[in-house]
Specification:
InterPro entries: Aminoacid_DH-like_N_sf, Malic_N_dom, Malic_N_dom_sf, Malic_NAD-bd, Malic_OxRdtase, NAD(P)-bd_dom_sf. There is one protein chain. This protein folds into 3 domains: 150 residues, Malic enzyme, N-terminal domain (Rossmann fold, 3-Layer(aba) Sandwich); 198 residues, NAD(P)-binding Rossmann-like Domain (Rossmann fold, 3-Layer(aba) Sandwich), CATH 3.40.50.720; 93 residues, no CATH class. 42% of the residues lie in helices and 10% in strands. The strands form 4 sheets. Strands 9-8-7-10-11-12-15 form a 7-stranded mixed β-sheet, sandwiched between helices. Helix 13 links the parallel strand 5 and strand 6. The longest helix has 21 residues.
């Protein structure tokens, strides 16, 4: 951006224009000189505040809101007024405010989006305006070289399902986390909703619904709509990362597979969940001093998250096998036993009970399992498989019973148990029960935060890792952005997961009772490390297009840090040719 010799930012906005622009507004922090130049004298209270003083005032206002949804609304209002203050406040109180700007409170805000709507949060694209999509896309991106586009079609939002045009809320929230945890410039990010209708009858009957009031677009017309959007991204923003978020189970994997070799594309529900789970598992097997290829893995729940985890772990097994005996997909898939509402996924269930998204290599044959309906429950599978790893993505509360866990512990010295379903009330098991049933031997990670649990026979507590995608997806995205990768490769994701695992307190401190993942409060530092690993993998895979990357480690770190957006105020100077 154009600056003076004194490092001041040249802007072409004055008076109400600058006060109403959240990118440049500083509120009470405009200096006397800026107030004179920008026509703000008399428009602001006399005192000149520092950013720190503004943050403390804002925090007091935030705390005065009596409910989480009111706190969410307050923060949304602040974001629309002053980006720098908004991100400075969130950065200082990241752990406290993360559940307010994301799950679970953001889900409540999205479900009531039409009633809370006040102003645009990004780009809304709907079928009746299909012919004007390019014009609308260019209008949203005018004069901007974007680093990030987050897009959702609103069909599978945060466990609350189809929210139609409210999907813009999740796109916006994800973009916010990219800025908080990876330093992505909010001016170079765009939130998009593909408002292709909704099958949510409550929304269709709501007189205040602000979205496209039709049933969801399906089939060829849906594919044509999505394809046109992706084509515009590739044409006009060829170097940006395209992040798919909360697409329905019938479309998420299919769209990822379709576009991942055409552009730098990422799906957090599939790849992010898989990547953070892989990191926790890599930390766990480092504790057990085994290998990925040694594991027998039962995944209870085979929706988008469960399948994404299975694919990610399988890819890691293939990649980490030694060169002279590299595992193929079929061999690696044989280490997995997938389960859904019908029990173990096996051929004898018939095609009508096996979803098309599930690859054949994951489906168990009659030869190895039998053709009957018997011995198909979780306890039966655990008895026969003797798993070393048990992962839950079912939203079936209490599915990991005492019988199941004790049976697993008979055959695994340190059973690795990840009940990952959200929210807490849908978790497959409580960590304190898992710890008790295994005599403190279980290595655990959960999808929701849990307090440390007592370890039988010890005075210390076991720290339960939270498999929070925000520990890794911002770093994966930042690595792609820094390298300007033409696509997001499997090795880029696996390299990021490996680096995250190395940062786990259980590994860093050499204490198996510590967490298998870093604390969420360290998300910015952790994601920076992940990003560097991803960048190096992109270079190794020859998909990096950025040419000015330093080769030495110290230079690389300084270069990457210099490209990180920080919540700080610039000094402004008015210039008719400046930034608008």
């Amino acid at each position: 951006m154009p600056k003076t010799d004194q490092g001041k930012l040249k802007i072409t906005l004055k008076g109400p224009e600058v006060l109403n622009n959240p990118r440049f507004n500083k509120g009470s922090a405009f200096t006397r000189e800026e107030r004179d130049q920008l026509g703000l004298r008399g428009r602001l209270p006399f005192a000149v505040d520092t950013l720190e003083e503004q943050v403390e005032r804002a925090y007091m206002q935030y705390k005065s809101r009596e409910s989480n949804i009111l706190k969410n609304s307050f923060l949304s209002s602040m974001k629309s007024q002053n980006w720098t203050l908004y991100y400075a406040l969130l950065s200082k109180y990241l752990v406290e405010m993360f559940p307010i700007v994301y799950t679970p409170t953001e889900a409540d805000a999205i479900s009531d989006y039409s009633h809370l709507f006040r102003r645009s949060e990004g780009l809304y694209l709907s079928p009746p305006e299909y012919g004007k999509m390019e014009e609308d896309f260019l209008d949203a991106c005018e004069g901007r070289e974007l680093d990030l586009i987050v897009v959702s079609d609103g069909e599978a939002i945060l466990g609350i399902g189809d929210q139609g045009s409210g999907g813009i809320g999740i796109s916006s929230a994800k973009a916010v986390i990219y800025t908080l945890a990876a330093g992505i410039d909010p001016a170079k990010a765009l939130a998009v909703t593909l408002d292709v209708g909704t099958n949510n009858e409550d929304l269709l009957k709501d007189d205040l619904y602000v979205g496209y009031r039709e049933k969801r677009l399906r089939g060829d017309k849906y594919d044509e709509f999505v394809d046109k959007f992706v084509g515009l991204v590739k044409k006009h923003q060829p170097k940006c990362l395209l992040h798919f978020e909360d697409f329905g189970v019938t479309n998420a994997q299919r769209l990822l597979a379709k576009y991942r070799d055409q552009h730098s594309v990422f799906n957090d529900d599939i790849q992010g969940t898989g990547a953070v789970t892989l990191a926790a598992l890599q930390a766990a097997i480092a504790v057990t001093k085994t290998k990925l290829s040694d594991q027998r893995i039962v995944i209870y729940g085979s929706g988008s998250a469960g399948l994404g985890i299975a694919r990610q772990l399988r890819d890691a097994i293939i990649m980490e096998s030694n060169d002279d005996k590299k595992a193929d997909a079929k061999q690696a898939s044989s280490q997995f036993w997938l389960m859904d509402k019908y029990g173990l996924i096996k051929k004898s269930l018939g095609k009508d009970k096996i979803r098309d998204e599930i690859e054949g290599d994951f489906i168990r044959t009659e030869e190895e399992w039998g053709s009957g309906e018997e011995e198909n429950g979780l306890l039966d599978v655990v008895k026969k498989v003797k798993p070393t790893v048990l992962i839950g993505t079912s939203t079936h509360a209490g599915a990991f019973t005492e019988d199941v866990v004790k049976e697993m512990a008979k055959h695994a010295d340190r059973p690795i148990i990840f009940p990952l379903s959200n929210p807490t009330k849908k978790c497959e098991a409580d960590p304190k029960d898992l710890n008790q049933w295994t005599d403190g031997k279980a290595l655990m990670a959960t999808g929701s935060p849990f307090d440390p649990v007592d370890v039988p026979g010890k005075k210390k507590k076991y720290v339960v890792a939270e498999c929070n995608n925000a520990l890794i997806y911002p770093g994966l995205g930042l690595g792609s952005i820094l390298s300007r990768s033409s696509k997001m490769t499997d090795s880029m994701i696996i390299s990021g997961s490996k680096r995250l695992a190395e940062l786990a307190p259980a590994i860093v401190k050499g204490d198996p009772d510590e967490s298998l993942l870093p604390d969420f409060g360290d998300a910015p530092k952790v994601n920076f490390e992940v990003a560097l690993a991803v960048l190096k993998a992109a270079q190794k895979d020859k998909v990096a297009r950025e040419e000015d990357v330093p080769e030495d480690e110290e230079g690389l770190r300084k270069w990457a840090e210099g490209r990180s957006w920080k919540a700080q105020y610039w000094e402004y100077e008015y210039d008719p040719e400046g930034v608008r």
